[in-house]
Design goal:
Layout (H helix, E strand, L loop, with lengths): L2 E4 L7 H6 L6 E8 L7 H11 L3 E6 L16 H14 L11 E4 L2 E7 L18 H6 L7 H4 L8 H17 L7 E4 L29 H4 L2 E6 L6 E5 L2 E5 L19 E4 L4 H6 L1
Parallel strand pairs: 1-2, 2-3, 5-6, 6-7, 7-9
Antiparallel strand pairs: 1-10, 4-5, 8-9
Helix pairs in contact: 2-3
Length: 278
């Protein structure tokens, strides 16, 4: 049995939606959907209807796009997230609200830990104070659509929601600390040094929280899976493998790869030669 992952399917785009059927069936294996599957519950359900029959198990974590409240929608913030968790459970898809399962891939037992952590604008230079962070990004013409569509209700702001999620998740992970290797899964990268976007560097504000910088060490990670950046990559920090598994918007992948080649093998893992081919 193998563990695969992909994120940022962005099924609101027709090309991506049509490509979904080209993901090869792997009925004995697990598939992680690491956020930004779409922007509506309908798009998320489309992914489940298409992929659930083709894999032994799906694991989902929310991206920022899934949490958006679009015009004519009413669910906001935590209520929107809870509705999506309910949809996942109707398809027996694992979420950050479920017990972390222990699974053997390639004969090695690991604990699968889907996380929901958000961001707190801390991925910024040390000389930029928090209160000036949005202005700093705006100087480069960068404003994330989250500022319009992602609502933190019932929290005072996205920072407070992020910190609440970090505290809740940290306590859960601490209970299992060092018992087994873990696979940590989050839409946003867990480290600021991995939130590198050469074309829009100041977008890092909306890419994670420094509170998780050492979680790969503290919680015995064998691999950390994330998306959000739309820059597929494999990196190592302190001997731990970090996989960014985005598909991205159509112009970011069509003509250069296929959707199935963006389905990344996480465990047992693939060779460096195979990784370069992706």
């Amino acid at each position: 049995m193998r563990l695969f992952a992909i994120s940022d399917l962005h099924l609101g785009h027709t090309v991506n939606r049509q490509a979904l059927s080209n993901i090869i069936s792997r009925p004995d294996d697990w598939l992680i959907l690491a956020g930004d599957v779409g922007e509506t519950a309908t798009q998320l359900e489309l992914a489940f209807k298409s992929l659930r029959p083709r894999f032994a198990q799906l694991v989902w974590v929310p991206g920022n796009h899934e949490l958006w409240t679009l015009p004519k929608e009413t669910a906001r913030g935590r209520s929107k997230y809870e509705e999506l968790v309910g949809l996942c459970r109707s398809y027996r898809v694992l979420t950050p609200e479920d017990p972390y399962p222990i699974v053997a891939f390639g004969g090695r037992q690991v604990r699968i830990a889907p996380l929901f952590l958000l961001y707190d604008y801390s991925f910024r230079p040390p000389d930029v104070p928090r209160e000036a962070a949005l202005e700093w990004a705006n100087e480069a013409g960068i404003v994330c659509a989250d500022e319009v569509f992602l609502h933190p209700d019932p929290y005072a702001g996205i920072v407070e929601w992020c910190h609440a999620r970090c505290e809740l998740t940290e306590a859960r992970l601490q209970a299992f600390r060092n018992d087994l290797p873990t696979v940590l899964i989050n839409h946003f990268p867990l480290r600021a040094d991995l939130a590198t976007l050469p074309r829009i560097p100041r977008f890092s504000l909306w890419c994670g929280t420094r509170r998780t910088e050492d979680w790969h060490l503290r919680f015995n990670a064998i691999v950390v899976v994330s998306g959000h950046l739309h820059i597929r990559s494999t990196s190592y920090r302190d001997g731990v493998r970090f996989e960014e598994v985005s598909l991205g918007y159509p112009h970011q992948w069509t003509g250069s790869t296929t959707i199935d080649r963006c389905v990344r093998e996480i465990l047992p893992g693939v060779t460096s030669m195979e990784r370069r081919a992706v």
